[in-house]
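$ run holo --ligand "uridine-diphosphate-N-acetylglucosamine" --emit tokens
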Amino acid sequence: MTGSNVSFVLGTRPEIIKLAPVIQECHRRGVDTHVIHTGQHYSDSLDAVFFRQLGLSPPDANLEVGSDDHGAQTGAMLAGIEEELHDIEPAVVFVQGDTNSTLAGALVGSKVDVDVAHVEAGLRSFDDDMPEETNRVIIDHISDHLFPPTEETAALLRNEGIPEDRITVTGNTVVDAVQTYDDRAASESRILSELGLTEGQFDLLTAHRVETVDDRDAFERILSGVSRASAQADQEVIYPIHPRAEDRLEEFGIAVPARIRLVEPLGFFDFLRLESTADVVFTDSGGVQEETSILGTPCVTLRYGTERPETAFVGANCVAGREPSAIVAAATQMRGKAGDWKTPFGDGTAAVQIVDTIPELPAREAVTPTE
Ligand code: UD1
Ligand code: UDP
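-- output --
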């Protein structure tokens, strides 16, 4: 027995940003939404700031699971989400991406027999050491509606035997989000003056993945590589530091090179402003690889592979690995690129297409042409 409303399970910064367009599209069609926040992210700078900036109401439920080992964290989510879905009886539960919160939402949905819709399906790094890779594969195989962003990711799903009638290529909702908020970021953000920066005269760094920052050697190598690469162009590097990375810097006693300036994690508008005005962006983030390809900023990925190879195919991204000399070479290759490639992640209508695909949800209202 299902109702006419829909649930969203989310828990981390990128899920809030990339599900916001789908939540908002549901509201435009008069659909009741019920947002279940797992509490995986809870610091204001990784969580509430995005609800405020993206104009979302606070979550309907917050399970407050917090940080823990993967099993304990995911287990706590499962119990809480199950209780919520039993109460709500939604027509469909939306999850996004590849985090532990995404996995928990999909797993409970499939157990309690609610249709699971996976936004950003089909991504594969083929690196089983990444906790996210395990999550991606499981989530895709238990989802009823899969929304890969590109034809390449759809092909990966077909190769794994996922039935064609579950797959709809929509582009990535991150394009919808960037298109909606980029102008506001440009007009409202004061981050350049707050940090004393000039457009085009700084580099930007984000690094937070387990395989980058939880390994002392790897973390030191990428900091050294980025510092050397930016020194060649005489650029300062701004690094809004994720709490996981900050914890590891302290634990390992790593001395951050002087060229790299640490700042607090930023809200979406400030971060978009820096991403679109940086000379080069260095990152191990999935979302940042996508956004730089949309904004026309050259990106160097500090990993040995990527589940977003489309960004490299269009010339927006160079996957450098973690060796300092390779990072320097990649930055030399990318710096100064015109940024005129076409983003591979669609035209900003992903959320509309996603909601169109769910049979239980109302169709788009016919647009009345104006005189
Ligand atoms: C998680 C996701 C990762 C995603 C990232 C987005 C998994 C397995 N990982 O990684 O895929 O790219 O979110 O940012 O789901 N912490 C805080 N405040 C918070 C949250 C965390 O200080 O609000 C600190 C805690 O010390 C915690 C650490 O950050 O131990 C890591 O948090 P966790 O949620 O385990 O994973 P992320 O590294 O954030
Ligand atoms: N982001 C942000 N402030 C920051 C760093 C990142 O708003 O200081 C946004 C960024 O614009 C992107 C998302 O966070 O939309 C990426 O999240 P993250 O790198 O944490 O996770 P991933 O995409 O790797 O899963």
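-- notes --
Residues 366-371 have pLDDT under 50 and may be disordered.
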